[in-house]
Structure formats: C-alpha cells, structure tokens
Write a structure and sequence with these properties.
Blueprint lengths: L2 E2 L9 E10 L2 E4 L1 E2 L13 E3 L2 E9 L2 E6 L10 E6 L1 H25 L3 E5 L4 E6 L7 H14 L5 E7 H4 L18 E7 L3 E4 L14 E8 L5 E7 L1
Parallel strand pairs: 1-4
Antiparallel strand pairs: 2-3, 2-8, 3-7, 5-6, 5-8, 6-7, 9-10, 10-15, 11-12, 12-13, 14-15
Helix pairs in contact: 1-2
Length: about 230
C-alpha cells in the first residue's frame, strides 16, 4: 500500500521514498506526492531519480509511476521524486474552483454533478438540469467569483466510513457510490461548502484567481455542460 502524501499536504513539491516494486516500466513506492489520475483530475508529472514520470495510475490496487525506463531502479533502494509544480498548482486551483462552482449550483438549484473533467487550460462540468435560463450561467460565474473573493480557508479532515455515509450531502457526484474504504477525506471551504474528496486543493480561495465561463452545451434532455477557465 502506497501512502498518498498529498492527502494531507498538497503543497509538497518533492519527496523521498523507498522503491517497493518494479513492474515493467513502472515503479511502485512506499509513499508518493504524485497524484494518480482519477476523479476527473489528471495525474501529476515530474521526475523520479531524475527520470521523467510519464503517467501515474492505479492498477490492481498499486500506484504505478510510469517511466521511459526503469534502468537503475531496484526494489529496496531509495527514490527522490520532484513534481512539475506549475502543473500541480494549476490543478489545485482548478479543482478548488470546481468545488465552489458545484457548491453554487447545488445551493441555487439542488442539482447534482453528473460528470467532470479538469483540464488545461479549460475544464468541464455536467449537471442534471432540464430547464434553465441562459442568465443562470452569468449568475453562476458571478457568484462563484464572489465566493473566491471571500478568501475562504480550505481545510482537510478525515471521517470514518460509517460517519460519512450518514451525511449524503458530502457526495456531489450523482450515481457514483463511494468506494469501499474505511475512512473518507473531507474538504471544507470555509463555511460555504463541504465535500468528500481525494484531490488536491489550495489553502485559500484567493489563490484560485478568477473563474470565467467560456461556453455551455446541451448534452441531452436533462444534462448541461459548462466549460470554464481560470484568469
């Protein structure tokens, strides 16, 4: 089992770890600050012992750091990881903006998110709204930025599975059941929003910058898609 260092500290830029296993061109570590791809957030990139990390994924319960070559890597030896900080920090800002936008949508309409994908330079979010007024999106952008400008502190806490599942409001992604894990990570944005989440986030909303909605699409009778970026 690999300890995920970013769950407690998203600001780690580099770290030391022990190599547990070599699988093909991938390295498994006892701990990592690299975010593995999932939950609509792309993986981190960077280097491991100076070699480029091309992809970080989870397969069969193992976190695989894929490299061009694992030559020189041996189980039991040490590894030093360095993140592409510009990329990591961008997705921290983007992920936090997604939580705020989802929070505004939920508070204004009670609607759930049906899908999302963070990207660079733009991200997208789907939600289950049948009828809507185009003015809604202008208000969404405005209200999201008002929350961001509130300089809200984002905090991380952990709750037991039993305790968390008694609070369905912590799960904002529709039709996705929580995985069988004993403990959930909870991300709180001041007193505005609280969600169960495993991604990386900034400490204060002021770090996000400003959200700008680029366009919207109809993706079905009850599905709307929003594209946005950060300024």
């Amino acid at each position: 089992m690999t300890e995920l260092l970013y769950l407690k500290d998203s600001y780690l830029k580099e770290f030391d770890a022990e190599i547990l296993e070599i699988i093909g061109n991938a390295v498994v570590l006892d701990k990592t600050a690299f975010y593995y791809q999932g939950g609509g957030q792309p993986c981190d990139l960077g280097t491991l012992n100076g070699k480029k990390v091309l992809e970080v994924v989870k397969r069969d319960g193992k976190i695989l750091h894929r490299l061009e070559s694992t030559e020189g890597f041996r189980a039991g030896e040490k590894a030093h990881g360095v993140l592409d900080w510009e990329r990591r920090y961008y997705f921290m800002r983007m992920h936090s903006s997604a939580h705020i936008m989802a929070g505004v949508i939920f508070k204004e309409t009670g609607k759930m998110i049906t899908g999302n994908q963070l990207g660079m330079p733009e991200s997208r979010m789907d939600f289950n709204m049948e009828n809507y007024n185009p003015e809604f999106f202008k208000e969404l952008e405005k209200k999201t930025n008002q929350v961001i400008e509130g300089n809200l502190v984002q905090e991380i806490s952990f709750k037991s599975r039993e305790e968390t599942l008694k609070m369905p409001e912590l799960f904002r992604l529709q039709d996705v059941l929580p995985k069988e894990i004993p403990e959930f990570r909870i991300v709180s944005i001041g007193d505005f929003d609280v969600q169960a989440d495993g991604g990386t986030h900034v400490k204060n909303t002021r770090e996000i910058g400003k959200v700008r909605i680029l366009r919207t699409e109809n993706k079905g009778a009850q599905n709307r898609r929003i594209y946005w970026t950060l300024e």
